[in-house]
Amino acid sequence: MNLFRVCVAVLIVLVGLNLAGCCTSSKEKVIVPTQSTTPTLGKELEDLEQAYKKGTITKEEYEAGKKKLLEKGAQPAK
């Protein structure tokens, strides 16, 4: 009976150590790549138009912004 209790105690300690080992932070670093998304020309134009329709910007600001976006979009990518 005493041997059984010792074996159970040892088993509990070993299982506890095993679980503690797998739950601690690893020395390996996991690198999660981030994607930087830039809005498309179409999305930028839609956003600009929405701002104009909501009255956030004036017609002149809308036209100037639209012209700027279209000129930027016409340039070849670097």
The mean pLDDT is: 80
Helix-strand pattern = HHH
Q: Please estimate the helix content.
A: 55-70%
How large is the count of helical segments? 3
What portion of the residues fall into strands of 2 or more residues? under 5%
How many DSSP E strands? 0
Structural shape: rod-shaped
Q: What characterizes the major β-sheet?
A: none
What structural class should be given to the helix and strand makeup?
Answer: mainly alpha
Detailed description of the structure:
- The structure is a single chain.
- This protein has 78 residues and is mainly α.
- It has a domain at 39-78.
- It is built from three helices and no strands.
- It has helices at residues 2-23, 41-54, 59-74.
- Helix 2 runs antiparallel to helix 3.
- The longest helix has 22 residues, at 2-23.
- The protein is rod-shaped and about 90 Å long.
- The relative contact order is 0.08.
- The model has no long low-confidence stretch (mean pLDDT 80).
Key descriptive features of the protein:
single chain, 78 residues
TL;DR of this structure?
With 78 residues, the chain is an all-alpha fold.
